[in-house]
Design goal:
Number of domains: 2
Structural class: mainly alpha
Helix content: 55-70%
Radius of gyration: 25 Å
Shape: extended
Number of helices: 12
Strand content: under 5%
CATH class of the largest domain: Mainly Alpha
CATH topology of the largest domain: Helix Hairpins
């Protein structure tokens, strides 16, 4: 008995992962519209006054989105050549956690879990990251962030140590002052973070001259280091966009391709 076309792995792979056919383009458009509609629905659900008149419609949409994105996730696992690689990839994890909310409601039907389950619904917003897979520039940005991750982590660790030291100094200077708001080390570190990031809530302020001088120095220091992560990612992004294309490799993801391939089997990039 001949297998139906929609069960043929190669044809299904071409429709879902590539976009060189009318069916593939249509699938991508439907998926994009579904992602956008689910995000809009999540925003509507977060506003009780607006969501109450459409409660039934929103619940129906909940099931519709669950079916669409569950099918998409299962179909990708079914037709891809390396299911585990897709499941553990960034977009694979996003697809998985985006399909969980409705199924969590079946697993935890108890009334005491309803408040928690309501928050799970908004995990659907993470599907917005899936839109990056349809944009070449979005892929380059994610790749730049991935390649810059080690540098950013080192920078984050440096800033964490710095705000801890500054918070400790603020606690030493302000801790014994009359009517001080620096009552503990945690509050002092919180103040250092808010000040260095130039947020400045104003809920904690120094009262001593030395505290104000130290705060001024922290503010100026914040302006000098706040742009470092942006520079790191920008430099990596420039490297990604200007690096030469290796022969026999996809210019988008670097995956090895054959001379006869029109599209990359890994990311769907047009090769010719």
């Amino acid at each position: 008995m001949k297998r139906p076309d929609w069960l043929d792995k190669e044809k299904l792979f071409r429709i879902i992962f590539l976009a060189d056919t009318p069916a593939g383009k249509t699938y991508d458009i439907v998926l994009i519209l579904g992602i956008l509609a689910s995000i809009i629905t999540a925003f509507v659900e977060s506003m009780p006054s607006l969501a109450h008149p459409f409660q039934v419609a929103l619940e129906i949409l909940e099931y519709v989105f669950a079916v669409i994105f569950t099918f998409d996730y299962v179909a990708r696992l079914y037709c891809t050549r390396r299911p585990m690689r897709y499941a553990l990839s960034f977009f694979g994890i996003i697809d998985l956690i985006s399909t969980l909310p409705l199924y969590l409601a079946f697993i935890f039907p108890g009334a005491r879990y309803m408040l928690l389950l309501r928050s799970f619904r908004f995990i659907r917003v993470f599907r917005v990251f899936r839109l990056f897979s349809f944009l070449h520039e979005g892929y380059l940005l994610l790749e730049s962030l991935r390649r810059s991750l080690n540098k950013i982590l080192v920078y984050f660790l440096f800033v964490l140590i710095l705000v801890t030291c500054i918070g400790t100094l603020m606690y030493i200077v302000e801790g014994n002052a009359p009517n001080t708001q620096f009552t503990d080390l945690g509050t002092s570190v919180y103040y250092a973070i808010v000040t260095m990031t130039t947020v400045g809530f104003g809920d904690v302020t120094p009262v001593t001259p030395f505290g104000k001088i130290l705060s001024s120095m922290v503010m100026l220091l914040g302006y000098t280091i706040i742009a470092i992560p942006t520079g790191i990612v920008t430099a990596t992004f420039v490297d990604e966009t200007s690096k030469p294309v290796q022969q026999g490799c996809c210019p988008r993801c670097g995956h090895r391709v054959r001379k006869t391939d029109r599209f990359c089997s890994q990311c769907g990039e047009k090769l010719a």
